[in-house]
Amino acid sequence: MAGCSPTEIELVIFDCDGVLVDSEAIACRVEAELLTAAGFPHAFEDIRRDYLGRSSETILRMIEERFGRRLPDDIKARSQTAVLDAFERELQPIPGVAEAVAGLAGPRCVASSSAPARIRRSLELTGLLAAFEPHLFSATMVARGKPAPDLFLHAAREMGADPQRCIVIEDSVPGVRAARAAGMRVLGFRGGSHCGPDHAATLRDAGAHRVFDAMRDLSQTLSEALSEALSEASSEALSGV
Question: Is residue 213 within 8 Å of residue 189, measured between CB atoms?
Fold first, then answer.
């Protein structure tokens, strides 16, 4: 990446949905329709506000707690099928993301709450798989999904990176909180079609170090985040003298 040596940033970790692929608006619509038809009424905004960035197991548990009854046993499989079918017709990459990722010189990976099959197919459909394969990490690989730090720590460990030298790109509150809990710097991205006017403030309130809204600004935002981190480290070193 421009202006950054591998010893300064060892790994850039990308969330997938809403960061690499513009999938969240599609998934929110499909899942709201499916849940409502199954007798668990949800609007698009309910899904966007309450569930984005969380693993499917966490979402299903939250819904059952909200309604006080069990979901149909096949709801997870039906949701996965319906969402992937919609992706086949509609999914697009986040504008400018291919060029932004290609401009990064150091190691990178994907760490997503989605299942491995959805991550892989999403990246295939948008022409991004070759930029990350085989470094695709799913919440299904760890005990706890976001906002717990497990997934990001797992990705760093598998990639041989120091968590304190990782930067995460996230679009969700659980993702931002997970990155902070992992001891990583996190950049909030608000360029997906699901992001409303309040999204930047929401990500900052969750702990994002910086927020940006266009992938063409990724390299500059990373450089600014690195400079900020180095300045903080210098200040801490001086204060400890």
Answer: yes
